[in-house]
Structures are given as C-alpha cells and as structure tokens.
Input
Amino acid sequence: DIQMTQSPSSLSASVGDRVTITCRASQDIIRSLAWYQQKPGKVPTLLIYGASALRSGVPSRFSGSGSGTDFTLTISSLQLEDVGTYYCQMYKSAPFTFGQGTKLEIK
Amino acid sequence: EVQLVNSGGGSVQPGGSLRLSCAASGFTFSSYAMFWVRQAPGKGLEFVSAISGNGGNTYYADSLKDRFTISRDNSKNTLYLQMGSLTADDMAVYYCARATDLWGSPNWPLDNWGQGTLVTVSS
Output
C-alpha cells in the first residue's frame, strides 16, 4: 500500500505570511493527489486536485505543486479564515490514503 | 444542488453491528463512485471504503475489509456501510463522499461530503 507522509503536523503563522505544507508518497503517484481543508467543527472541503488544479471557487492564494512522490500546498498570504487542518490524499490506487494532517493556526 | 445526508450512527456495544446510510440527491447517483471516510475524535481523516458507480467494484482499508461491507442501491440513491465486530477503535464520525469522476471510477478526488454520522462504541 502507498503511504502518505505529511509535514509539519502543526504550524503557526502570522496573517500575510507565506505558508507551505508538504506531502510525500511512498511510491510514485504521478499527479493523483488532492488537498482538503477542514475548518474547526466542519466537513472537509476539496481545495486542489491533480496536484495543482484549483477547484472552482477556491481563493487564488492557494496553490499546489509537485509530481511523483513530493507535493506541496502553498498559501501565498495567510488569512484569518484559513485556520484549520489540511490533508493530502492520494487517489492513484486503493487504499486511497490520507496524510496525517497539518493543523494551521494564526500567531 | 448535490446533497449527501448521513444517517444510522449511534451507540453500540463492543462486538456489535451497525449499518450506516447515505442518501444522495441532486446528481445522477449511479454515475459516481462513493466513499466512506471516518474521523476519530481529535484525529485525522481515514479512508474506510469505496465503491464504483455501478457497484461492481469495492475497495477497503486493509484493516477493515474483514468486518465492513460497502454497498449501494442505485434505485434508491443510497450508499450503505455495514459494520461488524465493532471496537472502541471504530468510534468516529463517518462521512460519505462523492468522487468527482462521472464515469464511476474511484480514482478521483472527493468533491462533496455528507455531514457525517457519529458512531460510539461503549458498554
């Protein structure tokens, strides 16, 4: 099975900061990677798919990059409403594993 | 509007069984693969199971395949998860979710999620 390792597990940054979260797959998953945001007490929502495609309606400060085994989610200028936990998920093959999550807080 | 409504959660004793349901509306249910994802209290998201649009292919987390069964009734636009031999480790909010591909493949991200249903395992 393919394992997904996400880092860091938690992150504290200031409004306006550039924030980067990484996700590493144990095998080549090409670009079959999605990023989700889960705000406190809410249902997860899809942000990015295909490693770098922004879902319609998602603010352009969010971006994704990478292919193969190494992927990155970047928030170019952190906003208050971005607080929450971010998860990567690979969908190349079953089981469709999630990363452990990165909890993002505002300083 | 796509809607996924979870139900069937509740409290069950260790060793017991439970069946979760997810009623879908607002889209052609049979065209989409569906997933179950769970989240234990204070923990991350965990893939549980998936099923192709026509129900012909099912997928499970390795640790759950002997106890959980996913199914769907496309005539009722409903997804199910039958869970057995439940333990405290199965306590979680269980979400159903839809994969984006309209050809029924599960190899796509999850673009719509239900509100989740809480399963508690306690004596």
